[in-house]
Amino acid sequence: MKKYIFVTGGVCSSLGKGIAAASMGTLLESRGYRVAMIKIDPYLNVDAGTMSPYQHGEVYVTDDGAETDLDLGNYARFTKSPLSKANSITTGQIYQTVINKEREGRYLGRTVQVIPHITDEIKAQIVRMGSIPDIDITIIEVGGTVGDIESIPFLETARQCIHEFGRENVLSVHLTLVPAVSGDELKTKPTQHSVKELREIGIQPDILLCRAKRELDESMRRKIANFTNVNFESVLSAMDVNSTIYEIPLIYHKQKLDEIVLKKLGLDLREAQLEDWRSMVEGYKNAEKTVTIAMVGKYIDLHDTYKSVDESLVHAAMGNRVKVKIVRVDAEKLEKGAVADEVFAGVDGILIPGGFGERGIEGMIIAAKYARENRIPYLGICLGMQIMVIEFARSVLGLQGANSTEFNEKTPHPVVSLLEEQEGVTKLGGTMRLGRSATHTLPETFIRSAYGQEVVWERHRHRYEFSNSYRHSLTQAGLKISGLTSDGTLVESVEWPGQPWNTGVQFHPEFTSSPTSPQPLFRAFIEAAAQHG
Ligand code: GLN
Q1: Is residue 107 part of a domain?
Q2: Count: domains in the chain
Q3: What is the C-alpha radius of gyration for the chain, rounded to an integer number of angstroms?
């Protein structure tokens, strides 16, 4: 029998449900079980692709080109779960499927309703994932907070799964908040209420993860257990960590979370192999040197906008046995005259991540120019590569006003532009070059030595490309093309000549990095930054 774990959240959002679910995945994998992770987002958007980073943080892209919630990135960093479109479920997508079936007449004249048709569709998607032969346990994170109107069909589905498949096969794990009110006194009432709400829907949680400032003492845990009908041993503390999020699985392991889960699911307690994970965390905590990276973008106020890039920098630092400090630089400040020497004082590397739209572009060009002229290691991702090309065209080739047609349709020198076949595409949802494809790296380039192999597979999410009509003049002027698509028609990566480590890539290397296997480009970038200065 396949096993399922539903992870829900109570009291309020942003308690770290994604990390909790992912950590459970890490621990179960460490005991030799194969895990699949599913994220349910109760919003009506079909996918996260058209959502503003201001609203929703980063869009995480899978190999098959799904534009998903950033929690899938957490899954990728904490587990080996296969990740594709099927691992991300939204209300919009479920309704779209059901309505399409209804239009095809597949419900044979019946009234189509939330229960059973919507819940059946949700269940079918979860079970389809769980039924993959390799998978032992499927962890389903239900987005939102218990009590939200939007989550009801998903919680009802969880209830039905528990009822149909049995409590020994389906677990409910509830992450809740135990706030400190006056001073240090922790309060259990919000947790009692949130479990009550869950029980009203018909779900008795098996395990409670209590987010709190500090570890809960025994009496507090007993009190919560008593009020919620959860075993005392299954009321665990999810206390704040200030070292690294990668310590969280170890904190849960210490409280026997994996053991409790396996016992409840009737699975063997294989030994946990956590040595690599533990040494990775310890290595990072004990690293002495700190490398400072300036990340220049426009969405800098928000914490989660460049989540995978931030985490990839941390992984690369782990791989180089240093710590990393990320300084966010608002590109618009540079445009408005901030002195670059001051902004970049003490910086060991400059990174320009992906982005869309015109705002902040000129500031990014100033940053790229500064990196090139001051010989600072540079990594440009997607937009960050396009910026490199524009800057080089203007400064070195002297093409005044060179630009991408995304930012200036009438530029005299469109060094970055749409492919001809894309012109005329007006829809915004799902019209980009998306997902995994091959890049052929060229010999004697930074990208080749970072990966150590000719063909590399990475994910894309963009519309515009390096213009082939400028390939000749830009390379004549010294810009080095370091990677191409398999057919050689599109430029995938470039580097500046005669400079310390620098690379711009049209793809997104940040989606394939994990703490135990840092992504090669980030690794090489941090290595160069550590040697800088
Ligand atoms: N806006 C650019 C494009 O569409 C870059 C996209 C990105 O950085 N993800 O090509």
Answers
A1: no
A2: 2
A3: 25
Q: Which of 31, 127, 15, 21 is nearest to 77 (CA)?
A: 21
**Domain CATH code at residue 185:** 3.40.50.300
Give residue-wise pLDDT tens across range 463-518: 999 999 999 999 999 999 999 999 999 999 999 999 999 999 999 999 999 999 99
Q: From atom 7 of ligand 1, which residue's Cα is the shortest distance away? A: 354
**311 labelled catalytic:** no
Options 382, 413, 465, 492, the catalytic residue: 382
CA of 404 to the centre of ligand 1 (A): 10
| pTM higher than the cut 0.85 | yes
Peptide bond into 116 cis (omega under 30): yes
Same domain, 393 and 524: yes
Q: Both 257 and 189 in a single domain?
A: yes
Residue 253: name the closest of 265, 240, 262 by CA: 262
List the CATH number of the domain containing 319: 3.40.50.880
Å from CA of 465 to ligand 1 middle: 9
CA of 469 to the centre of ligand 1 (A): 19
**Is there a single domain that holds both residue 294 and residue 267?**
no
Do the beta carbons of residue 130 and residue 138 sit within 8 Å? yes
Q: pLDDT tens, 48-69?
A: 777 776 777 889 999 999 898 8
* Residue 382 bears catalytic tag: yes
253 is catalytic: no
Domain with 13 in it: 3-35+114-280
For residues 279 and 362, what is the distance between their CA atoms, to the nearest angstrom?
A: 43
In short, whether 53's Cβ falls inside 6 Å of ligand 1 is: no
